[in-house]
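Module 6 notes. Inverse folding takes a fixed backbone as the condition and produces residue identities as the prediction. Think of it as a translation problem where the source language is geometry and the target language is the twenty amino acids. Below is one complete input and output pair. Work through it position by position during the lab.
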């Protein structure tokens, strides 16, 4: 689905080859500062390689409209912004931005249930804990229903039990709906349990065999 060809980004990344497969769960692991977030931002076209090309289903990302691309390939950042206002306002923020139809409260509560938030849609988002905000932000992305989810440490603020529940839910959703997921995690256990492919990034380079041994994809 994504194919990196001789990609470099400033002095940060140097990736001669990297493949992300469609309808699979790919997890990026590696030390802090190794370049994982930078890779997600490239997949989302928030930033572009300073050298080389990234193909998306065979088409150079440069040729694809950024706004349209981000509707198909949606990123949940490491510290997502919450807006003043209610949980509902925050949950539907992306839909509003994309000028899409707002679902019924029943559907919105189903999304809250999915992310294990037992809160009223009317309550303020500001008073939520860090982990609750993280789950609300995940709900905001799930409701957009993109083809590709880019999740940057989606469970970093959660306790182990909640992390397991949330990652289980997301990965089940991805498999059931034939979506593609690329996530970053610091948890080796999560990476090993849920991924089809683990890509290890070290100082901006891919240090797993994965990057070089599948040229015929
Ligand atoms: N726009 C930029 N220009 C130059 N350097 C950058 C830019 N963005 C990030 N960097 C640097 O690139 C390196 C990789 O950053 P990145 O956020 O991708 O790491 P990461 O692996 O996601 O780290 P963490 O696990 O701590 O989130 C860091 O040293 C960072 O300071």
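Target side of the pair, the amino acids:
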């Amino acid at each position: 689905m994504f194919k990196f060809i001789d990609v470099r980004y400033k002095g940060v990344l140097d990736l001669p080859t990297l493949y992300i497969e469609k309808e699979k769960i790919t997890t990026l692991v590696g030390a802090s500062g190794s370049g994982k977030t930078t890779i997600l931002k490239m997949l989302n076209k928030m930033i572009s390689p300073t050298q080389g090309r990234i193909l998306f289903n065979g088409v150079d990302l440069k040729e694809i409209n950024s706004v349209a691309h981000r509707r198909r390939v949606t990123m949940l950042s490491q510290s997502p912004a919450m807006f003043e206002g209610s949980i509902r306002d925050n949950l539907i923020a992306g839909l509003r931005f994309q000028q899409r139809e707002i679902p019924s409260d029943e559907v919105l509560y189903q999304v809250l249930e999915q992310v294990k938030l037992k809160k009223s849609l009317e309550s303020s988002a500001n008073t939520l804990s860090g982990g609750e905000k993280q789950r609300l932000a995940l709900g905001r992305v799930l409701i957009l229903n993109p083809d590709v989810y880019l999740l940057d440490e989606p469970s970093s603020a959660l306790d182990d039990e909640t992390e397991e529940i949330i990652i289980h839910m997301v990965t089940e959703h991805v498999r059931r709906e034939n979506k593609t997921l690329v996530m970053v995690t610091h948890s080796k256990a999560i990476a090993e349990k849920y991924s089809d492919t683990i890509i290890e990034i070290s100082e901006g380079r891919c240090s797993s065999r994965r990057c070089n041994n599948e040229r015929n994809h």
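Reference fact for the lab report: DSSP finds eight helices and ten strands in the chain.
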